Amino acid sequence: MDKEMMKGSVDLLLLSLIKQRDLYGYEMTKLLKQLSDDQYEMSEGTLYPALKRLERKKWVESYWSETPAGRRKYYKMTEEGLMELEKKQADWQRVNQLVRKSSEGHI
Amino acid sequence: MKSKLEQYVENIVRHTECSKQEKEDLYEELLIHLELSRDQLIEDGMTLEEAEKKAMQLFGNEGEIGSQIQQSLFPYRKELMLTLAVSSILFTITVYLINLFVDGDAQIGWLTMSMAIGAMLLFLPLNQFFHLNKKLWLNSLLIIHALAELYGWLIVSGLDHPATVGMVIWDWLNIALTIGLVYRTTIYDYSPNENFMKILHGLNITSGIIISGITLFFLVGMLIMIGEFHPRMLIFMSPLAVWIGLYIFQLKIVNKSRKMAFLLGLVPLIIIVLLFLWIYYPQLAYR
In this structure, are residues B13 and B27 in contact, taking their beta carbons and an 8 Å threshold? Predict the structure, then answer.
């Protein structure tokens, strides 16, 4: 997958994942790899700057939790994050539509 | 001995300017990720050493990720510091040269001092190895820098040159950026649940700036009137000393009693307001 394209959509990807359930960092990279059939090639570490940014913007919140396998830092969605996600999804749809229409020969 | 993964994570965390607590938190979070990744790779059939190496490789370059985290946490901090450093070094050289050409004589002491401060401002944000209570160092440096720039203002206002107005504006822009950065390093860098500390620091910095301003005003006034420095003039520094003492004391007791710390933080501001009232509306006191 195109790395630049991935970079632009990392907020949308992470918010979409966290919306479904609270997740910790390693889980997110694993999910992204699985869901993309191992096409997701971003370095795992780049996830954390993105998460910190989302947290600073108050779109997600983090908390430590004790699991049977050890301590994990989970991220969960906030109200503001939910609104932001809806906005980003709408934007994504628009770009998607434009790409499709541009390649369908409407000119 | 520290494992390779621990060293690796430490290198990442070193690139950030978080508080100690935030650093520990980040360190633990990243280390857990790498350990989970390593365990998975071992399960897939790698030896411990191979798995550690691969886990780090998958995670990415330490410096890059550390800097990205820093940028996410404190956007534009580095850029602002560098702008300030370059701007103040250029300002210093310009003032020195104009002073030299207009008066045929210039203040080499100020030049050296101001250049040294500028160089340190340039050095601090760029280096990653010096992080012993960095916030305190950064703020002290910024305050000394503001004083040097104030002195620069005195030099510039004494000059008879068409560039003076522009230079004064430039100087005050530098001072404003410096003060802005002091507020930012002290207040902005707290997590949202430490709102109280933000208010406390905000109160203290504000009164500190006003008190330093008044103190300097009197000191310079005395210097101009008397014409030479006299140790007794240091008495005018006493409000500043009281302010520093109060500030330190508040930080000591804040964990025990927030109310008390807050009240103490208000004291200098209340005194300042009363003083201004007394100076500008003396009739209020004698009614």
Answer: yes
pLDDT at residue B130 is higher than 60: no
Q: Which of A61, A45, A52, A8 is nearest to B75 (CA)?
A: A52
pLDDT > 70? residue B192 = no
Chain B residue numbers with beta carbons less than 8 Å from the beta carbon of A44 are 33, 37, 58-60
Q: What are the extents of the domains in chain B?
A: 4-68, 74-189, 190-287
Other Cβ atoms less than 10 A from the Cβ of B27: the count is: 18
The closest CB to that of B36, out of A26, A45, A52, belongs to: A26
Instruction: Please write the tens of the pLDDT for every residue from B38-51.
Output: 999 999 999 999 99
First and final C-alpha spacing in chain B: 75
Q: What is the dihedral of CA B259, B265, B267, B273, to 10 degrees?
A: -120
Contacts of A73 in chain B (CB under 8 A): 25, 28-29, 32
Read off the pTM: 0.72
Chain A residues with CB-CB distance to B65 below 8 A: 43, 45-46, 48-49
CATH of domain B74-189: 1.20.120
pLDDT at position B104, please? Answer: 83
Residues of chain B positioned with their CB less than 8 A from the CB of A70: 32
DSSP B273-284: HHHHHHHH-GGG
Identify which of A24, A49, A70 has the shortest CB distance to residue B69: A49
User: Which residue does chain B place closest to A50, by CA atoms?
Assistant: B72
Instruction: Return the sign of the alpha-carbon dihedral for residues B68, B70, B75, B79.
Output: negative
Q: What is the pLDDT of residues A33-81, one digit of tens each?
A: 999 888 887 889 999 999 999 998 899 999 999 999 899 999 999 999 9
